[in-house]
Amino acid sequence: MGLRAAAEAMRGKIAVVVGGAAGHIGRGVTLGLIDEGVEVICCDNDRDGLAAIVPEVEARGGTITALYADVEDAASLDAFYDAVAAHTDHIDILVNVPGGVARSLFEATTRESHARDIRLNYGYVVDSCHRALPLLRRSRNGGAIVNFTTIEAHRGAATFAVYAGAKAATTNFSRALAVELGKDMIRVNCLASDTSLARASNAALAPEDFARLAELGPDALGQSIEFYVPQKRPPTVEEVVDGVVFLVSDLSRTVTGTTLHVDGGTWAAFGFLDWPEGDSFMPAPLGGTLKRLSR
Known about the structure:
alpha/beta, Rossmann fold, 7-stranded parallel β-sheet, 12 helices, 15% strand, globular, oxidoreductase, EC 1.-.-.-
């Protein structure tokens, strides 16, 4: 199938975007699907974002229903899906965007923070998929689910332990569900965007991390990304959205049970950093970098 045919096939589909009104990525996913001719039903816990997304979509000539829901509250998410079922008899696409964490040593966390991290990064995804599945089954041409995960689901992410475990659960849940729903042509994939300017702004780092970076000047975060990301820059919001559009379009109609890493190569590098002072790519710094640090 070519690009033109895939684009035509997207028009008129109905998508649910959980967390689709606010934040760089959620809002971007909604607008990206709208631009492909998809009708969007989205929810968010940001009331200002909900109020802003409607006129923005209408100005693009799109159709949107924007409702309040807090994914950390199971009853709130259920109420959203009740409204979705009252609005339409089927959906074709589901995108689960929300997630988040604050960096902390595990011993400094609490039982309450564990429950929140698990709910926000795994539990609500299970509930959302469970509620959406009957509506997806009524789609005429199968369906597509995209769950946002992270590179931390694939490595030992110290200071993000519960978050990493929850995202790993989302990743393997998605893989298992893809196998279960394969015969129904309902595809289930994950997207891992890893480091992005959007995520850097949402307090994943601790305040003291940002304070130390600020002492080094406005370019410090960009310089750290150059060491870490093989392409020397994080993905833009538009590039992350392109990954979502690919996964829900007929261009990926036999892609299911996998994770698409839209990350500039960080997952491929898997800890090989481009150290300065001539050390180049290695898991640990060599003489050039160590000499510079010793100064």
